Each structure stands twice: as structure tokens, then as C-alpha cells.
Amino acid sequence: MNPHRPGTLITAAVASLLVAACGTSSNSDRGGRGSQITLQIWDFSAEQVNFHKDVGAQFTKEHPNIKIEWRSITQADYMKTLPLAFQSNQAPDMFYWNATGLSELLDQKWIAPLNPNGTVPADFAKRWPDGSFLDGINTQDGKTYGFPFSENLYWGSGYMFLNKQVFQQAGLDINNPPKTWTDLRNACAQITSKTEAECIAAPTKGEDMQRLWYGLISSVSTDEFFDYKTGKFNLTDPEQVKTFGFMQELKKAGYLAPGTNDKNFSRQQFAAGQAGIYFDGTWMLSVFNSQGFGSDKYVVAPRVDPDGGPTGAGGRQHDGNKYWVSSQTKNPDAMWTFIQWMTDPNGYFVKQYYKNAFGTLAYVDNQKTVTDPVLKQIMQIGAKPGYRVQLPEPLLKCPDLAKSKAYVKALGKTPDGEWEAMSEALVSGQPLASVGAAIVKQRQTALEEELKKEAAGGLKVSMDCYTFPDWEHTKDYTPDMYKN
């Protein structure tokens, strides 16, 4: 191994993954001379592999001329493999992506309209609530590129999972979960003193830290690294610093599982009864099921609030657009056929998705459709007033932001900067305010300077587009408020 050439090794490893992911489909499989078209779909939902095989088989049964080849790649590898696939002109026909939005995907020339004609028919759009298709979010220049897949009230992070066995061993009442930061400290003290388990299985490796972070910050301010009330990147704001300080207290007291662990390790640690508490999102029901950890072995509870009560809430955004048609597909008509089939509220995909309790979809009446008791419990928590609130949408205030690249460019400055700063501060014990100052300044400066350039070029944009002083962190920002 040559220590001076790490890039070569990484490229070779990713290239091998790409070859494995792409397989050896012939041109006829891709819609050339053969009678059956093969559509390739990629994502990183390992727990849904069997479901996707079943879905593909059923779709082909109904549409014999189209074969579905649905592949799942581990998330870390996927984030490298997909860009490489586009660079080498080997991208799938449809892919899962929520790391960036419509603007960047269009700039990268990764996506094509859902319907080859550009627009979608009214009966298709009516599957979603009014306001689900917005310029700059999933439509651009009269063409529709995305559709909300996951709904944004129940689906998301900020839930607390409790291991029944560990709580019982600690002498804690599983039906009376910690509700405040002090409750959490007290529960952790009891778990660590009376059992051999860790208290909190908390991943702290890179972006995986969001599992615990969102379980705490969502009750304090906004779970974004940008505050739409002030129009500022907010990692170093007092509310964020206070919450991170609590995380540091938990670590110092020995209540966070030791080590710099990723989410997979922490999930397995919790499922194995080696930790009593784990914070994560709606998707964990299917993840735990795939690990053989049944819902009879854990309880889902709301996130914990600061002792003085909640002063913030989880944010609801128009970010449910996750599956995109690739610009490199050679079979756009077949892809559109599959999308219509996949999003039929009464169709096979939906019925099997809910049968497997994978989550909640944006184009389904979840109150009528969900039957799984744990998922119902999650819905009851998420629907509690103030648990999640609708964030302001700058595009609705300033439509020209659909043409702006300022916010995307600001986020492009050291993409994982916030998580890197938090990881450094957690390990070193330094205050987040000092460690995170550089990334906040870098992002804010980039945003403000780029908006000024765009305004000088004729766009009607400014920092005012991102500033909503009448918004409270615990309340929905409603459509009528844009008129004020």
C-alpha cells in the first residue's frame, strides 16, 4: 500500500462498487433491441431489499415489457458511487437523493422531468395535498421534476426509543419515560448504576451525530443550522450552545456510550440490550425489524424537553422529494409508467409499504391507512401540537429564489462543517461557540455576498427573503403570514 496515494485507493474502491451496482445489463435490457426494458432504481434502504424485489416482480407481472432492477447500496458508499455513476454515464434510471435540492440537481444535470412531456396531469398532482408542488422545490420553468415521497408531520427525526429489558433491569417504569433533561440525567444514573448497559447509544461519528442532536435541539429552537426568524446561520447561537453543552454534560458523566461510533453500531448496541436509550426517526421501526428486534422489545417516546419546557420544535419542510428520474435514462416513458404505478394511493406499492410498516407517505391518508401499533404511536407523538411546526419557506416570500444559487453555495462551503465542529467540541470539551464560529461566519458571508451579486444581476433577492421576524419557533408559519 502506497501511503502517498490514498486518492487512488479510494477511487479504485468506489469504481469496484460502481461495477457491482451497475451489473452487466446489455443494451437490449436498457431498451435497445430486446422486447423487455430494464429500469434500474438505486437507493440505500437495505431493510427494504426484499420489499423492492417483491414490488419489481408485481410491476413486471402487470407490465410484462418492463423489468425493475432495484439496488440498495450502503449509504456511505452510495454517496460516492452515485456521483461517479453520473460522471461515467452509468447512472440508474431513477435514484434516491435528499442531500441537495432541485437547484443543485439541475445544475449538475442529474435529473429529468417525471413525465417526458414535462408537466404532470392534474389527476396525478391531486394525489398530494394542495401546495405540494412548488416552483424551486420540485418544479422549474413549468416542468415537474420531483414528487413528495415522505410526508413531513410524522416522518422525521426526534423520537426516543427505550429498551424494555434495560429499563426493567434498572428498575425504571417504561411507561413513564424521561420527559425533561433532568429526567434523562436521572434515568441515565439509574441505568449505569444498576445495569451493565450504557445509558444512551449515541452515534457521534460525523453527520450521524444528528440522531442525538435532533432529539435535544428540536425542543429548544430549530433543528436546522439556519434560523429563519433572524436570517442567520445559528450553530453558535445561545440556544444551540446550551443544548450542545448538555450533550457535553452527558458525555462527561459517562451517559453516552464511549467511542466515536456510527449509527449502525449504535443501533445494534441498542437492539442487543447494551444501551437503554436511542434517539432517531420514524424509519427505525423497519430498521429494527430487519435486525430481528421486534416492537415488543422497545417503546417509542417523545424527545425530552429542557426543564423549563419546550421553546422550539422540529421543522416541517418541503423536503419529501426523494426519488428523481435520471437525466441519463434511456426509457423515460417506462419510468413515468412506473412512477404513476408507485404513487397510486390504492396500489400495490402503497399497500405493501404499509404492510411492512416502512413509514408514512405523502400521497396517502395515513390516518386511515396505518395499522401498525408502533407506527400509530409515532403518529400520535408527531401530531401533538408544537411537536413539529411548518417552517417559513423563503421561496414563497421571494419567488426569484428559485433562480438563486446563494443558499446552495453557502451550504457548499465545508459541507459537513457543523458536524465537524460539534465532533471536535465533543471530543475536546471546548465550547461550541468558539469551535463553530468559523463555519458560521463562512456560511453567512457566502450567503450575503452571493445574494448581493444576484440582486445586482437583476434577481429580486436579498437577506430579507430569509428573515421572518414574526415567526415563533413553536408555531406553524402559515400561508397568510406571507401577506403581512
End-to-end C-alpha gap: 63 Å
How many H/I helical runs? 20
Q: Give the oligomer, counting copies of the same chain as homo and different chains as hetero.
A: single chain
Work out the strand percent.
5-15%
Low-pLDDT sequence parts: 1-14, 23-33
**Computed Rg:** 23 Å
Structural class: alpha/beta
CATH topology assignment of the largest domain? D-Maltodextrin-Binding Protein, domain 2
InterPro entries: Bact_solute-bd_prot1 (IPR050490), SBP (IPR006059)
Organism: Nonomuraea purpurea
Protein name: ABC transporter substrate-binding protein
Question: What's the helix and strand layout?
Answer:
Layout: H1 6-22, E1 37-43, H2 49-62, E2 66-72, H3 75-87, E3 94-96, H4 102-107, E4 111-112, H5 122-125, E5 139-140, E6 143-144, E7 159-163, H6 164-170, H7 181-194, E8 198-200, H8 210-217, E9 226-227, E10 232-233, H9 238-252, H10 263-271, E11 275-280, H11 284-290, E12 298-302, E13 314-316, E14 323-326, H12 332-342, H13 348-355, H14 366-369, H15 373-382, E15 388-390, H16 394-397, H17 406-411, H18 417-428, H19 432-435, H20 437-456
Parallel strand pairs: 1-2, 1-3, 8-11, 13-15
Antiparallel strand pairs: 3-14, 4-14, 5-6, 7-11, 7-12, 9-10
